[in-house]
Amino acid sequence: MRLSDVAKMLGGSLDGDPSADIRGLAAIEDAGPSELTFLANPKYRKFLDTTGAAAVLVPEGADAATLRRKGGPALLRVADPYRAFLLLADEFYPPAPEPAPGIHPSAVVAGTAVLGKDCSIGAHAVIGDGCILGDRVSISPGSVIDSAVRIGSDTRIMENVVVKSSTRIGERVTLHPGCVIGGDGFGFTPKSDGSHEKVPQRGIVVIGDDAEVGSNCTIDRAMIGETRIGRGVKLDNLIQIGHNVVIGDHTVIVAQTGVAGSTRIGEQCMIAGQVGIVGHLRIADRVKIGAQAGVSRSLGETGGTYSSSPAKEHRRAMRIEGGIRQLPEMITELRALREEVDRLRGSREGTSTPSGEKDPS
Question: What is the torsional sign of CA 273, 237, 200, 205?
Fold first, then answer.
């Protein structure tokens, strides 16, 4: 594709050779002579001087005199370089085609299940009794949809997903391979003999429209009531959501985070990787939690930012971390001061006179 065509597609202004041939996309540090890249984060500015790319997407206000070197890549100014780059990804690397409507001969679909128009049921998939699927639902090979599950239109359930009974899934939801939705919550009560008795798990999972659940996530059914994943929630891979958890609309959670039972997370929160959140907490809207934080108390400040373990206000956590890094030097200095105090104390005691006598000096 000619660079001029790319500029026209994105509605950007071009500074460079419009006839340049663009054959692919790449990261700015790796791009080659026929590839296009983007610059959105200032920390990657240094790669602009060394990249081999044919062209770079830059913000509209970028100064060509500052950014462009002689013989360097063409600059294509757009409102949002990253979003423009994502648009081009579909152009240069089209997504895999949607599965064709129909039911594979090896799939098992209960006679009481109701399927909407143009559904696709893959090989060895199972659709249980009383399930209701909306239009254009895609169930990939090997997935099991238990009894009485309701799935909204245009939802895609990928390979080897298990959706347990009575789960409700909205429209345009994506469940990536290996998810288990609606398995029993972890509920046991100790008995007098030291063993544990299982607490019945009789609730359900509800997933809102436009949510996306990454590979190998587990979302437990409620003990009673609902475990609820809000509209537009995005869960990365390998996340554990406990029973009766509620996650507000458009919250994003990164890989390997675990949320214990009955915690309520607000809307538009951002929770980084490997965060641990204990049960029965309340987290306000638009809260940000840094990677590997341990949340052991409710976070009630709307829009607050927290990090560390136990989690604390981010700026305070950074001050504490800065202090910890100085501890070795502080300990060395403290030892030196102690030795000096001991020396002065010993010197003073060595020159003291018996009680009641005047010092000759």
Answer: positive
The closest alpha carbon to 175, from 201, 204, 145, belongs to 145
Q: How far apart are CA 217 and CA 240, in angstroms?
A: 6
Same domain assignment for residues 88 and 152? no
Alpha-carbon separation of residue 330 from 67, 317, 344 (angstroms): 45, 19, 21
Helix runs in 197-326, H state only: 314-325
Q: Catalytic pick from 176, 196, 243, 250?
A: 243
Is 243 one of the annotated active-site residues of the chain?
yes
Residue 305 in this model has a pLDDT that exceeds 70: yes
Predicted confidence (pLDDT) per residue in 203-260, tens digit: 999 999 999 999 999 999 999 999 999 999 999 999 999 999 999 999 999 999 999 9
How many domains does the structure of the chain reveal? 2
Instruction: Supply the pTM of this predicted model.
Output: 0.84
Tell me, yes or no, whether 32 lies in a domain.
Answer: yes
